[in-house]
Design goal:
By secondary structure, the chain is mainly beta. It has one domain (6-221). Helices cover 10% and strands 50% of the residues. It has three helices and 16 strands. It has helices at 173-176, 182-186, 203-216, and strands at 6-14, 18-19, 25-26, 30-37, 50-69, 74-86, 92-93, 103-114, 123-130, 136-143, 148-153, 157-159, 165-171, 190-191, 194-197, 218-221. The strands form three sheets. Strands 5, 6, 7, 8, 9, 10, 11, 12, 14 and 15 form a ten-stranded mixed sheet that branches. Strand 5 and strand 6 form a beta hairpin. The longest helix has 14 residues, at 203-216. It is elongated, with a radius of gyration of 19 Å.
Length: 222
């Protein structure tokens, strides 16, 4: 996964708790970090027009954790809860809590499922398009699909209250829109002065961007 300069960072904490069994076990910390970036390599096809995204949110509905412990146990935990993660404040509302036994894991996989099939888009990115004449127009990208983003680790991962692990999903709307030309945005339909790119508005642009979202969104577990 290539490294990108971070613009906005949001984090949902899957935090420490206690597991009840025959023997009480302190749970480990696991952070889900979803980062919205601006890639220095994703320049639009024309020189002066610019498209810059600076806000948005992601709605998460389910997180699945799988991993093998040193004692031979395989831990598989699914937590279902709808939470909205704000890209500006980094606050998950409501907070996302998940109990995972502390320990060292191999073959770790984390699946993060995005909410879908509601009237509210599951992923929204908002920004501004400035054309060659210097005219600025708000842009809103709306995506509503139950995508599952997976983060894996080839190295052992230790979870504890003192040593949290992080699963990071990188969203880069500048990469998603990098093949969209200034002419396409200039000609896009405005809704109350806003270029809305969704399944029902400016669908030609949406189909291109949605395909790139699926292909270019990276996940990393460490």
């Amino acid at each position: 996964m290539k490294r990108l300069n971070g613009l906005l960072t949001l984090a949902a904490i899957i935090s420490a708790g206690l597991l009840s069994s025959c023997e009480e076990e302190r749970a480990g910390n696991l952070n889900i970090s979803t980062q919205m970036t601006r890639s220095s390599t994703a320049i639009m096809q024309t020189g002066s027009p610019m498209l810059v995204f600076n806000s948005g949110y992601v709605v998460v509905r389910e997180v699945v954790f799988d991993g093998d412990m040193a004692d031979g146990r395989t831990i598989s935990i699914t937590e279902e809860k709808i939470t909205t993660i704000d890209m500006v404040t980094g606050v998950a509302n409501p907070p996302f809590l998940m109990d995972i036994p502390a320990g060292t894991y191999t073959s770790v996989n984390l699946g993060i499922e995005i909410q879908d099939e509601t009237d509210r888009p599951s992923v929204v990115a908002e920004g501004v398009f400035t054309n060659a004449a210097g005219v600025a127009t708000p842009v809103r990208f709306e995506f509503n699909s139950g995508e599952v983003f997976e983060a894996n680790s080839d190295e052992p991962v230790t979870l504890s209250a003192a040593t949290p692990a992080t699963a990071k999903i990188t969203f880069d709307p500048h990469v998603w829109f990098s093949t969209i030309t200034a002419a396409q945005l200039n000609n896009a339909v405005r809704t109350n002065g806003v270029i809305i790119v969704s399944e029902t508005r400016n669908t030609g642009i949406f189909n291109i961007v949605a395909d790139r979202l699926d292909d270019a969104t990276d996940a990393e577990f460490r």
